[in-house]
Structures
1.
Amino acid sequence: MDPFKNMQEWKKNMDRFFGEEFWNEFEGILKPPIPQVNMYQSDNEIICICNIPGIDDGKKIDVLIDYASIQIRGEMNVHPDYGGHLIQEEILQGAFDRTLELPFPVRSDKYHADYQNGLLIIHLYRLITKESNKRKVPIKIK
């Protein structure tokens, strides 16, 4: 017997009892954030690999860079309408909007992104500010 077979009906009853906003508090626990992201850091570069299946047009994804954060938003549709009813769904889909904090500020004038085999790969480069290049000049007293 499948314990999750009647989960949708149970959720509908809970929605009626508690209200639809009740689930917002549990969203991160019940449904992991999408897209799934792996982030890699080197001295001067960050590579974000985002699992976003079903994209056939790069204009369907927005990537916004803001100093030390990146926002990724769009919509994943992993299958066309096959007809019939869905009996198992493990691949998360639908609209997403995710903001990630970066380990250091990045340049807004140098970056690139590629989409291949369901993965969005974003290369970001460290912002080197003038303050980080300051060097104390030793003074010799004669």
2.
Amino acid sequence: MNTMGSRACERPPVRQVLVLRALGLGDLLAAVPALRALRRRLPDHRITLACSPKLADAVAVTRTVHQLLPTTAPGRSVPERLSWDGRPPDIAVDLHGNAPLSCLPLKALRPSALLAYSEPCGPPWHPDEHERLRWCRLLEWYGLPADPGDLAIAAPAARTSAPGAIVVHPGAEAAARRWPAERFAAVAHALHLRGHRVVITAGAGEARLAHSVAAQAGLPPGSVVGGADDIPFKQLAALIANAAAVVVGDTGLAHLASALRTPSVVLFGPVHPRLWGPPADGPHRVMWHGDPDGDGRPGDAHGRRPDERLLRITVDEVLDAVDGLPPGPVDVPRLPETDE
């Protein structure tokens, strides 16, 4: 047997890239420009994203990675370990944070190269930088050009029962970013009286909030979507892609509206929109009443009370902003039911 000949015919192992971004939907969508750059700049590598398995459908729609490595961690903390099988990754990329802690699960896999902010050879961390720009700058530091404006995704082919509706999302992960329910209800009521179909969306555990807003607004039965559990991503994306407009706080759904180019009014409180806001050239209106010359992070984004800057936003301002939006829904590309 010619062992030397058989070895010569063996294919070299596929180069592997492992990316850590084990956070929520908005965080995933903010990282799409960086993930897309990795896919384009490393065409001969297989890219794996370590993130929550709940985001599997959202990850598939971005078409930025080849596979998902399910991982979980409480809140926004770093996973203790990553269930990576096989030889060490050729490249590990930390898109999770800037502290040495976020690199530990990647370092434990002994990658050939680690792209991260906390590394001695990495770029400096700028706390006042927009999230999309931050991760693109990281890759550019390592010679991988990335476009922070390359955030658009195509809508899934799933149908929606409320095409052309105005979607109002009163929920938020933290109370600090949650505009009062009665104000959301006043906005929804005014839009309903103007003849718009209004849909109230709710994430897991937000059913009571959503139904309270719908009742105060005088909306017809069936106006609430979600609440008991998170709305399945394909259903949510189809709803937002076909909406006339979205009224939302600083949440993942706001990033989904940006990614799908759906006109939106986004209400900001403790965190300045220059850090997490929609693209300035998109069909969006930003509501913000902080000190324009002050710190971009003037409040606690995870606080237990609505931020005072958020409370400065009035119902009339939001309605005027909705009136100023371009007509929707925008014609966005559709994905086939089976992703590549």
3.
Amino acid sequence: MSRTEGARLFREAWIAGVRRHFPGEPKPGYVTPWEETPEWERIAAGAVYEQVKQFLEVSEGQAGRLSREQKGRFVATCWTAQMYRHFEDPKPGYVADWPDLPGWQQETDADIFEEIVKDAD
């Protein structure tokens, strides 16, 4: 899968997770379709997809055995690094540590990891 396809898989997994876990009606930006997703966000999604994919490769697939929390934390940490890459002074919510993320976002990040595992099989 190309990086662009991986980025799109990431975005689609994010949207599905938001729809599944977000309490109430999510902000429109949370569920913006791929075609309307800003370029920086597409690049960030592709980078995180690649990081998870590489993590699976170097662990010979065993990273798929991590707990849901560990999977979500990995995605969240990779995403935070992308926020620092793309923004000089990112909003605090963009770079919040795992315990400070809302539960719906933690669950969505874990879902993303698991979707990338499925794709790698």
